[in-house]
Design brief:
It is a single chain. The chain has twelve helices and three strands; from the N terminus they run E-E-E-H-H-H-H-H-H-H-H-H-H-H-H. It has 255 residues and is mostly helical. Among the domains are: 37 residues, no CATH class; 105 residues, Orthogonal Bundle (Cytochrome p450-Terp, domain 2). It has a three-stranded antiparallel sheet with strand order 1-2-3. The N and C termini lie far apart (61 Å).
C-alpha cells in the first residue's frame, strides 16, 4: 500500500496546500483561521464557522500567569537562546486539567447529543461522574464564578451566527444536570463552551486539544516578548522559593 499526504507539496516554482497554490490562491485571500479550518478538514469554513473558530482561538490565547505561562517564562529565563524550548515547555502543560480539557468534554457532549433524550443522558453522565468521584471536564473555575464571562460571550456568538447546534444544546442539558446534582450553579468554563462550538462548527472532536495548542502558542510567545522587555523569571522563582520553604524531615520519618 502506498502512503500519501494531501496536505502539502512543494516544488521549486510553487507550494501547494490541499490542491491550492499558496502564492497564487491563498496568500492575501485566506485568513489564518480560514487556513486552519481548511487544512484540518479540506473544506472552506462558512462565515459562521470561521467566526466561531476565530472566537475560540482568541478566547484560549491568554489567561494570565497560569502554569503554562509560568513554565514558559522560567524556561526562557534559563535558556533565552532557545525561544522554541520555552514555548514548548508551556505547551507541554496543555492537558486534561488546564486548557486542553475540551477534547474530553466534546466526547461527553457527543454522547448526549446522540441520545434520544438528551436531558436524561446528561443526568446519567453526571451520576456516573459522581459515583466514580471524578470531575466533569468543562465545568468549574477557580476565578470565574458563578458564570464564566468567556462562556457567555461564546454562546451568545454561536446564537447570533446561527451556529448553536446539537453540542451546544447538549452542553445546556449537561449544565442543568450538573447544577441540579450540586444544588448550586456550577459555571461552564471556556473549555466546555469551546468543545461545543468547535464540534458544532464541523471540526473533529479528536483535534480539539490541537486547537488549544494553536491558540495558546500565540499567548506564550507574548509572554516571551514581555519577558524580554521586563523579565519576571527571577521574581517568579523567588516567590516560589518563599511560598514553599524548606522543612527538615521529622525524626519519625528518618530511617
Amino acid at each position: 500500500m502506498t502512503t500519501t499526504t494531501e496536505l502539502c507539496h512543494a516544488t521549486p516554482e510553487d507550494v501547494v496546500l490541499r490542491g491550492r497554490s499558496l502564492p497564487r490562491e491563498v496568500v492575501g485571500k485566506a485568513t489564518f483561521t480560514e487556513m486552519i479550518y481548511f487544512l484540518l478538514t479540506g473544506r472552506d469554513p462558512t462565515p459562521a464557522q470561521r467566526s466561531v473558530l476565530d472566537a475560540c482561538l482568541v478566547t484560549l490565547m491568554e489567561h494570565g500567569l497560569t502554569p503554562s505561562a509560568i513554565a514558559t517564562r522560567l524556561t526562557y529565563g534559563s535558556a533565552p537562546e532557545a525561544m522554541q524550548g520555552a514555548v514548548a515547555a508551556g505547551l507541554l502543560g496543555v492537558g486534561s486539567v488546564f486548557v486542553g480539557a475540551s477534547e474530553t468534554c466534546a466526547q461527553l457532549l457527543a454522547r448526549i447529543a446522540a441520545a434520544p433524550d438528551g436531558a436524561a443522558e446528561a443526568r446519567a453522565v453526571v451520576a456516573e461522574s459522581r459515583a466514580a468521584g471524578t470531575r466533569l471536564p468543562g465545568f468549574g473555575h477557580p476565578l470565574h464564578r458563578p458564570v464564566d464571562p468567556r462562556t457567555v460571550a461564546l454562546l451568545d456568538l454561536a446564537r447570533a451566527q446561527g451556529a448553536y447546534g446539537p453540542c451546544c444544546t447538549a452542553l445546556a442539558h449537561l449544565s442543568a444536570a450538573v447544577d441540579a446534582a450540586a444544588g448550586r450553579a456550577i459555571p461552564v468554563n471556556a473549555t466546555g463552551a469551546i468543545a461545543a462550538l468547535v464540534v458544532d462548527a464541523g471540526l473533529p472532536a479528536g483535534i480539539l486539544r490541537g486547537i488549544a495548542l494553536i491558540s495558546r502558542c500565540a499567548g506564550l510567545v507574548a509572554h516571551v516578548a514581555e519577558e524580554q522587555a521586563a523579565p519576571a523569571m527571577r521574581t517568579l522563582w523567588e516567590a516560589a522559593d518563599a511560598a514553599v520553604p524548606y522543612q527538615p524531615p521529622s525524626q519519625e520519618k528518618k530511617p
